Amino acid sequence: MLPVCQQKITTYNSASRVLxxxxxxxLLDKNGQKLSCHNIKISSQFCCCPAKATLTTNVLDxxxxxxxxxxxxxxxxxxxxIRLAVDDLIEYRNKLxxxxxxARCSDTDYIQYKNKIETTILKIAKSCNKESxxxxxxKDAEVRPxxxxxxxxxxxxxxxxxxxxxxxxxxxxMLREQSRQNNEQMVQCLSKIDxxxxxxxxDVKQTREEIKDRxxxxxxxxxxxxxxxASKLGILDHSTARILEHRNxxxxxxxxxxxxxxxxxxxxxxLVLLAKGGSGKTQIALHLASIYQDDGYIPLFFxxxxxIKFKDLISxxxxxxxxxxxxxxRSSVDFYEDDHRNILDTLSSF
Length: 350
Ligand SMILES: [Zn+2]
Hints:
Layout: H1 21-27, H2 62-72, H3 81-98, H4 107-127, H5 131-143, H6 148-248, H7 256-268, H8 281-294, E1 298-303, H9 306-309, E2 320-325, H10 337-349
Parallel strand pairs: 1-2
Bound molecules: zinc ion.
Protein name: Novel STAND NTPase 3 domain-containing protein
Domain Novel STAND NTPase: 252-338
Pfam family, one: nSTAND3
């Protein structure tokens, strides 16, 4: 291949360029002595420059190596074994390292790829008559200890992992604590709700009992009141009927006894009529009742102990005349301390 200055093409075509100026800079010493055949009219800065004195394969990256091999090495023509092997190596490098999705691979894949790569490398080595040397190098590489840089990276990875795990541990602890607190709060809330519900239950129960008591009381009172009124109406009817009968009785004669009775009743508010049977006590009582009835009193006739039984019928708000018949017995006068004292006390109390 001719240097640029010796070629007949006068216009430089960048599309046909094989090496980039940066790559040329790696390979060539542009300050070195140019070849004597160099045409100084050509301004290309790398034309006819010597290779760098420090140049070794170590400073060549994969792309540049491939470029040099494919374009300038006579042992690497298209479709040759070496060319195919180089392409395979480039593909493995890109697939497994350059464009890998993650920095890991399974043991099975590792062994498979390692075998493929070793086979490919040995193919190239065989073409270069360096098969046994390369076999040894591959064996050495297998048991080679990690170099310092990789060790450092590995250590950094481990430290990062430890730190990351510690953060995760703290996070889990915090979440656990939070969850515990939430749980406790929930339990407290539930317990409060329970208490409130219990309280409401008790309140409702009490209220229901109170309402029932009041209803029972009202029912009882109403029944009692109705009974009292029914009894009072009965006694009043009976008393009025008897007084009316007396008014129609033309045979009654006013006596001095009646006059005395009227005076005592007026003065004392209490009168006890004692006389023999058939001597007219009832007629006097009926007559007094008719007089008081005319005066606006309500006459109520009771048979001895009934006055105790129905004493609630006697209203203090109304003008009432109470007549108790046969208080001390029908035929003779018998005084029973307990019974009669009670009746007289009751009558006196009005
Ligand atoms: Zn030149």
